[in-house]
Amino acid sequence: MDYQNLLLNIDQEILYITINRESKLNALNKATLNELNKAFADAIQNVNVGGIIITGAGEKAFVAGADISEFSSFNAEQGKALAAEGQKNVFDLIANAAKPIIAAINGFALGGGLELALACHIRIASENAKMGLPEVTLGLIPGYGGTQRLTQIIGKGRAMEMILTADMITADQALNFGLVNKVVLQSQLLEVATGMMLKILSRSPKGISAAIIAINAFGDKKQDGFTTEIEEFGKCFEHPDFKEGVSAFLEKRKSNFQRN
To answer: Which of 237, 238, 240, 218 shows the shortest CA–CA distance to 227?
Structure first.
């Protein structure tokens, strides 16, 4: 696919996805969401991709929200369809991916941009990053999973405050809230994200995917997390990674897990 709004690059089994609409502060329009769906769906199936890092072009914004002009005249049914399609095709696709996904938040992450980061498994922010869900200032609420994922990550009280006041928070506040895992210098953002991803990719691919599935079961009313953990734990015993990991441990050497 010829991407118009994304830049893709694979290095050391890491797919780097850069939302490339810097003049629009990397806002999510329909075309960009469609491209994100294609890029993530392909990466999840690509055996040469072990993990994904997503960021925004430039130093001002990760994603500064959605393209409001595209839905300013929508009615209730159109709005519902917008949220449902976006959640299914992009945000849930990312959250439920069995490959690790890191958001490298390089500036503003607002509205749909913060929801995109929330869908990722790990978030690392540059020190100048600012995050918020300003939808209530438009007479809306977050529609791409923000009310649910933000609450799960930082707790009901703080999620209520962020969403109802529409206030932005700084990177340091986000770190204190547990919204991001690390805050680093802008110049070191991708380096730190890459280092973390390479460490993750040195572990068992089967173990990583099973852990993501089990962790995602937490808070999911459709499944019991403990049962999911037990099932995924059991499946690991049938995978070659288990034999290699145990052998490496007993032989006091580094594991040599095979991705393909």
So the answer is: 218
Three-point CA angle 152, 158, 162, nearest 5°: 105
**Residue found by looking up tokens 């959250």 in the block:** 95
Q: Tell me: the pLDDT tens digits for 83-121?
A: 999 999 999 999 999 999 999 999 999 999 999 999 999
Which amino acid, 147?
Answer: T
Judge whether 108 and 62 are in contact, CB under 8 Å.
yes
Burial class (CB in 10 A: 0-12, 13-18, 19+), 101: buried
Vertex 87, ends 11 and 74: CA angle to 5°?
Answer: 125
User: So which residues are the catalytic ones?
Assistant: 115, 135
Rounded to an integer, what distance in angstroms lies between the CA atom of residue 109 and that of residue 56? 10
β-strand pairing of 169-170 with 122-126: unpaired
Mean pLDDT of 3-7: 97
Pairing of strands 182-184, 130-132: unpaired
**pTM beyond 0.90, yes or no:** yes
Q: What is each CA distance from 59 to 54, 64, 112, 203, in whole angstroms?
A: 14, 12, 18, 31
Where do we find the tokens 């609409």? 21
Average pLDDT taken over every residue of the chain: 95
Residue 67 confidence (pLDDT) above 90: no
Q: Beta 6-11 vs 14-19: how paired, if at all?
A: antiparallel
Structure tokens at 140: 């809306």
